[in-house]
Amino acid sequence: MLKSNPPAFLYCLPEIYLVNFTKLLSLRSFHGTGPTLLRLQDWESVLNCINLLSRIISYALQTRTGQFPLLTQFFEETLRTFDWKSQLLWYNIARDLTRCTLTVPKCFFQITGALDDLFICDEDTDAAQESEGWHEIFMACKLSTKLSDELFMHAEQWTYNLLLLWNHPYEDTIIKSSLFYALHPSTSLSVSLEYPNLILNFLGKLYDSYAGVHEVIREFNGYEQQDMIPIIQDLSDYGTRQYFIILYITLLLKNNMTKTEGRDEKQDDYYVACLIKVLQGMENWGDISPPPLSYSNLKTRIIKSGLIRKIHQETSEDPSPGNMTGANVPTEPKVVHYPLLDTPEFKSQRALSIICFYHLCSLFKDHEISITQKQALERLIILIMEGFIDTSSRQEFHRMLAQQPKKRITTWRKKKCEYKFVMTMRPAVTSAEEKLLRPVIVETIPNHKRIIQALKLSPKNHNTKSTKPNYLYFNN
After folding, report:
1. pLDDT tens readout for residues 55-78
2. Pair 117, 160: CB distance under 8 Å
3. How far is Cα 247 from Cα 168, in angstroms, rounded to an integer?
4. pLDDT (0 to 100) of residue 31
5. Whole-number Cα distances in Å, 210 to 85, 164, 204, 224
């Protein structure tokens, strides 16, 4: 064969790949019962190939209907000869193509039931404990997002057991242990590609099925600090859904950092790295501000949002001497911060970053963290800090300051309109946010002085006068 030709194995029929990949992955279920066959990195490469092949086959079957009879035969007949977990590798295709039914262990079936012939009970298996049934469900949903979709499409048929999962993450008794069982290398050979299947897809679907969960998260009275509550209440529906998932991730990280005798540190490191990778991909943590606006667009947005009228009303209701003179007329300028967080979505994004930053910092407290785990946590903490510091917005604000004409400032000072206002750069961390973050940074982070300096948090005992802010002036 000429060197320019592709390898011979690429000439194989697609069904041969399907059979051999399925056989290879079935060996993963023998983890812990024999010699180590492949490293986690090798299993990850195999899963990568399976995911790619699955997308190619799915596209081919949709666009070339009837042209691949041997592929169809594999999904209708050959795949059925493998165990039920191996069948799940191709379930995203097989379910739509053949409406196949899975034969699941009795402990699994006792929780879900048949769900319109989605499952058949394997009577040859033992009933086992309920916890084993949940473990099997989580292991299955790790292998197939389609299975998670099907389970929650039939949620009303197994609500009696599903409601056991409908709790605040702090009060959960099932999910954390089942996630650990399905994902940690000590109990499975799960790879990073599979973590989002459970953490993002399954937990996201669980949140969506849980009526009233938004209020459960917002009104929960068991948070570590009371200062968390106002920030959590700034979360939108989407932000609360993200926070629900973040809580589970940080609880998994916290539980893992409580050392257990006999557990392999390298396995713990891999588990932590995969969890942090999922968390890092949930949001664009380094860029949480709205896109930049010109001076005129800023003025229009601020006026339309009613923000100045709201500030004026709040100031008018404040009888402090610094705010009032004469006939209840405010004398202090009404201040708006840049970037402008004038929508619930922008407020929610910042609140989510603040609360996530708090939970990540708290992981350092009373835990013996390996160097690898510490570095992974610190990288994400630094990324979130970049979002707070927001260098690009600061540069844009200073550009507008430099271009501000002196005539505008003179006009603003002469004008008597009670709705005139000024804009200044939002601090990296506001006073309310600092009240929550400062204690956890100082008490838990070994190099906390660098973080305090980067976020420009005020010294613990400070009597120095604050620097006068630079203002953009707006005449309404």
Report:
1. 888 888 888 777 778 888 888 888
2. no
3. 9
4. 61
5. 27, 11, 10, 24
